[in-house]
Known about the structure:
Number of strands: 17
Number of helices: 13
Low-confidence stretches: none
Structural class: alpha/beta
Largest sheet: 8 strands, mixed
CATH superfamily of the largest domain: Type I PLP-dependent aspartate aminotransferase-like (Major domain)
CATH architecture of the largest domain: 3-Layer(aba) Sandwich
Mean pLDDT: 94
Oligomer: single chain
Strand order of the largest sheet: 4-13-12-11-10-5-9-7
Amino acid sequence: MKIERSEELFRKANQFFPGGVNSPVRAFRSVGGTPLFIEKGEGCTITDADGNSFIDFCCSWGPLILGHNAAAVREKIVEAVASGTSFGAPTRKENELAELILTNHRYIEKIRFVSSGTEAVMSAIRLARGVTGRPLIIKFEGCYHGHVDSLLVKAGSGLSTFGISSSAGIPESVAKDTIVVPLNDRRALEIAISDFSHDIAAVIIEPIPANNGLLLQEESYLKFLRDITRKHDILLIFDEVISGFRVGFEGAAGYYNIQPDIITYGKIIGGGMPVGAYGASKEIMSHISPEGDVYQAGTLSGNPVAMAAGFAQLSECLQPGFYADQEARTIAFVNQLNQYSTSKGYDLKVFSIGSIFWFAFTSLDAVRRSDEIDPNSMNKFRVMHKSLLEKGVYLGPSGYEVGFISAAHSTNILERAVQLICESLDVVYSASSEGITKI
């Protein structure tokens, strides 16, 4: 595989950007080598600066549910750009996308568009505090909610603890506004709520945790969260930046039939353009400025190009059978990989929900918490990632990240990918048996 042009571009990028990238997840530090500089995407393939083409399972980290350069989306973007790229004033396109979402979504009544998933979560947290008049937030170890100061925290020692900053630049005084508890541990949450119930504004969770492995939670546990928060008048926030419009049009809320108080979105609703949103009942959303006293604003919020792209993409998602077909192709893909792994005696499980999947180098039948992920398993992922690139398959460069299947991943392409992945698994376990997977 040629990488000379990507290497040249990366050397130059290091002169401009910290670590040579504009987001750390794009770096190849955990898998080794040089990040590939992508020149073009079409359908389910991407092509890098050296002319290498790959079956892409990153899909821009999830937004491209129709695949790269989908004609329906591209045409609406071009049409929107022809009339201008930004106005800082209301446009019809905001109304059109909001109506499309709210008409087909039972779990929110009003929505506010922003420019990223992180901004959506930040705004939802402020809204929860404004509505309740309380300062504290509960989050779960293993769930990621963007680079919001008060949520970029990890657990301290103990069953339920005040957060500890997981990034430099976040004062401990800010981290102390967040209580961190383990996932899938009812007792820990009960203790935290018992100790601080009168000060807790909200509990926030990825109902489908997909930023630190695919930590699928039992439906009964998610319903327990709804019951206990309602009992104590605590708001429940579903962070659906990844799962929203991915596992179904109504996301995890619809998948599990659970009504959260606030839901955050991003990725798919922008059709590949920068976007985020948060929604709730009319009553809760009435607290947002200019109607209420919770301030939130954004120059590019509801950007007309992003609204046009999102409207085009979500219109396709509403076509009959869209999500059923997505899930069916994903299940077939995952089942073939799991069957092969079992037949070879490999300690690998591929977990999935909707059109999201994750490679877990484990013998466990379920992985529900981040501490159930063996850090040493990332050595195997590193070998697999390198082998797959050489074979023409692209995954995000971290074993903790999930993969995505788009409408452009046909059955034939997925069967070809299965063959290539199985060949790479043979490389992984051959290398493992020879003891050369240490980083």
